[in-house]
Design brief:
- This protein is mostly helical.
- It has one domain.
- It is built from 3 helices and no strands.
- α2 runs antiparallel to α3.
- The longest helix has 40 residues.
- The chain is rod-shaped, with a radius of gyration of 25 Å.
- The two termini are 13 Å apart.
Amino acid sequence: MNKDILEVFDEKFPIQHHECDDCWYSCPKASDGCCDESVSDECNCGAERKHEELRDFIMKALQKKESEIIRKIKMQITKEINIAHSENQPTSRLTSLYMFISKLK
């Protein structure tokens, strides 16, 4: 799922390298490239680094949120199991659900 989100992010926010009217000052990865032949073909405008930082931020935020949701679900299932025990009700389905959710990470 997270990879799908990153693919959508990449489509909606493509890397935009620095382009200047004077191509001497453009990033080599810009659409028209850089006229300075002494510069390597690597990005020198920081666009790729910034894009990667944003991707990392998104992934970490998603993973954090996912962990919080799983933790809350596990806590709720534990509560339900304890209630079922106190009422002498079966808990096998809740236990199975808890085990399934535990394996999601």
